[in-house]
Amino acid sequence: MSVTIIVGSQWGDEGKGKITDLLSRDMDMVVRYQGGNNAGHTVVIKDKTFKLHLIPSGIFYANVLCVIGNGVVVDPAVLIQEIETLKTQGFPVDNLRISSQAHVIFPYHRYMDQAQEKKREAGRIGTTCRGIGPCYVDKFNRRGIRISDLYNEKVLKEKLAWNIEEKSFLLENFYKFEKKIDLDQLINEYLGYAHGIKKYVVEESTTLVDEAVKKNKNILLEGAQGTMLDVDQGTFPFVTSSNPVAGGACIGAGIGPKAIDEVIGVVKAYVTRVGSGPFPTEITGKLGEELREKGGEYGATTGRPRRCGWFDAVVMRHATKINSLTQLAVTKLDVLDDLEKIQICVAYEYKGKKIQDFPTDIYRLEECKPVYEEVSGWQEDTTKVKDYKDLPKKAQKYLKKLSDLAGARISLVSVGAERGQIIRI
Ligand code: GDP
Ligand code: IMO
Ligand code: MG
Fold first, then answer.
1. Is the distance from CB of 59 to CB of 93 less than 8 angstroms?
2. 132 CB near ligand 2 (under 6 Å)
3. Which partner from 56, 112, 349, 367 sits 20 to 30 angstroms from 384, CA to CA?
4. Domain 103-197: which CATH class?
5. Active site (annotated) includes residue 103
6. How many angstroms separate the alpha carbon of residue 280 from the centre of ligand 2?
7. Which residues belong to CATH 1.10.300.10 in the chain?
8. CB within 6 Å of ligand 1 — which residues?
9. DSSP per position, 308-341
10. Domain over 2-100+200-263 is classified CATH 3.40.440.10
């Protein structure tokens, strides 16, 4: 009876996978609305860990229809691998659907991604090199190839020939990136993928979503990445090439804004970022490393170490504003269990003045210094707590402070990676 968006409030990896899986129990449909296999969403069920890159995190419930929405970019080889892995782990994946409007990642997108990163050197974004940006560029440049095109050999051939000619020229002459792309070989490869995923492809995914809305079903729209990686609202240009924010859910799932009932911002009790770009509350040195080890902060997709920092209320307020957050799901509270002192960034200092609003111009942001408030840690194990009232008083106080600063109420607190380690408020 409701449509809920799950959105990352920071720089990604907030625990969207865990929260989506958790809420999926009561859902009829889960739609992934943007991004591609740059995402890595972890779900831990008992002693088993699953890392999803493209398939919505509701897939573990056979009765929940899981849709890869029109806003996603799909690398079919990765998708097929993911389907196969899930099958061998005992999940039939019959509940998966793929929008025919989703765009397809080709090897030349990956090459372009790698070549651009290589050429940029100092200004490197630190992308996942999965071809995400170049695929979205082709989409917006109106030369992208959609899932539906894979079933029209003539169109596929024409579009591919044009794309290969262009990319080969750029790779060879501008980027000096030696990769030969063979049209016939690529067509055969992708026709094979098309065959492999055909049973999941739906011609009109937006109709599927609309019918669920009309029937008052429970629908979850699962975002990838996070608000600060949004191409419009994040730390541009150190962002991803899509709109992870709540507005992006309407576009990428094909649903009108008035159909949305709740927007849950997933937020770590601290902050992490993987890849380059400004990060005002970054903790360097030993403490940063300790937090990384305790939190297992290594990328679910690339394995890269994540940079760790203190909770940043300026970033959080930005997320509340941009996404119209109605609830917060705070994750990884347990990672702070041992700390004697915890810092909370409540504002930034810019040119001698305190500012509350997040500066979206990174050159201004670079001049900002976090203003911290220190609170004492609770130094107790929270990983077995099931009830809010059983949390240490100091942990409750910390959460209350986060909620007040964010301007949104907390409905979920996660105290461990496993499905059951959750406190509902
Ligand atoms: P996502 O991309 O937002 O889905 O997040 P990731 O899966 O990339 O990263 C979150 C990591 O934290 C994963 O390894 C999760 O298993 C883990 N995790 C999620 N919630 C908690 C929690 O409350 N405590 C701890 N310790 N780990 C958590
Ligand atoms: P989930 O959904 C964290 C980062 C990359 C890089 C920037 C651009 O698991 O939260 P891209 O390959 O998208 O062009 O890289 O975005 N990035 C993520 N960081 N979590 C993610 O996804 C990310 N997806 C991309 O590290 O800084
Ligand atoms: Mg992740």
1. yes
2. yes
3. 56
4. mainly alpha
5. no
6. 18
7. 103-197
8. 8, 12-18, 39-42, 44, 296, 300, 331-332, 334-335, 414-417
9. EE-EEHHHHHHHHHHHT--EEEEE-GGGGTT-SE
10. yes
